[in-house]
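>> Question from a student workshop board

For tomorrow's exercise we were told to take the sequence and the ligand below, predict the bound structure, and bring the output to class. My setup keeps failing. Could a helper post the expected result so I can at least see what it should look like? The ligand is hydroxy diiron-OXO moiety.
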Amino acid sequence: MNTKRLSEKMEAALSEQMNNEMFNSQIYLSYGIWADDQGYSGVANLLWRHSQEERDHMIKFMNYTLNRGGKPQVSAIRQPGEEPKSLKDCFEKIFKYEVQNTENIYKIVDLAFEEKDWASWNFLQWFVKEQIEEETLAMDFLDKLEIAGGDRAKDESLLELDKMFGQMADEAELARDTDSENP
Ligand code: OFO
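>> Workshop helper replied:
Here is what the output should look like for this input. Compare the format with yours to find the bug.
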């Protein structure tokens, strides 16, 4: 008896996204290595923690596909591209990767909608929210870097920022969690 509750197309899309999340984990891992090598140990710590988060996302796609009777396929992970040239470049690249990942998630949401696969649609909503958080976090870092002087920031400001980034929460605050007393 066939108990698979996913279309072939959805199974393939979920599998691909599982591998995308692993690629993102590698990006954060490699940028963390770059940051540590540059002396930014706080930023490195933040990026390595995030690398782990991306791996958790990969596990979520793996488990969901299995729970719905599918079988995800692990593919080779491509190498992260060029190293960042500066902290600003590092967070600009991260922002672009996150936006790309959001686009990838939206495509699967579209497919779930087309197929009226409401279970997958519901599963994917967690990722829609997660991507808002991740884009917001990357924007926050870029804003702080800009205030510190961007590419012309002085070493002392960068060291201060490095300390701050190392201690920052992993989650950004979302608009939906605010109110007039806690704007
Ligand atoms: Fe998996 O959230 Fe970032 O990319």
